[in-house]
Amino acid sequence: AAVSRLSRAGALDKLAAIVAHNAEMLDASLRFCDANGIGCFRIGSSVLPLRTHPKVGYVPHLLPGGRALVRAFRDCGAYAADRGLRVTFHPDQY
After folding, report:
1. Distance CA 29, CA 78 (A)
2. Predicted pLDDT of residue 83
3. Mean pLDDT of the residues in the chain
């Protein structure tokens, strides 16, 4: 509801900031797993909030700074692959 009350540009800015934070936290989580011998990490779909929402959904690379955001997630994937971490992606229960 909060995002839907913003202008489209404002909503995309807000979502881009959240997605950027989530990419940083994913990187930190993967590094923690690697450092602590945890071989698998489950990523919830909330890492890209409202991505498929019919009214406020978005395409990640079209967000403000989207190319850098996509690169950050790809870097996470490369890190996981390089370290042999198993990464799974699951939708939230709702």
Report:
1. 14
2. 97
3. 94
pLDDT at 45 over 90: no
Dist. CA 9–CA 62, nearest whole Å = 11
Residue from 35, 29, 31, 62 nearest 47 by CA: 29
User: Rounded mean pLDDT of 12-30?
Assistant: 97
Instruction: Look at the block and give the residue holding tokens 């009214």.
Output: 55
CA atoms of 79 and 10, how far apart (whole Å): 32
Helix or strand holding residue 63 (H, E)? none
Dist. CA 81–CA 94, nearest whole Å: 29
Residue with token string 């079209």: 62
Question: Other CB atoms closer than 10 Å to residue 15's CB: what's the count?
Answer: 24
Q: Tokens at residue 91, please?
A: 């939708």
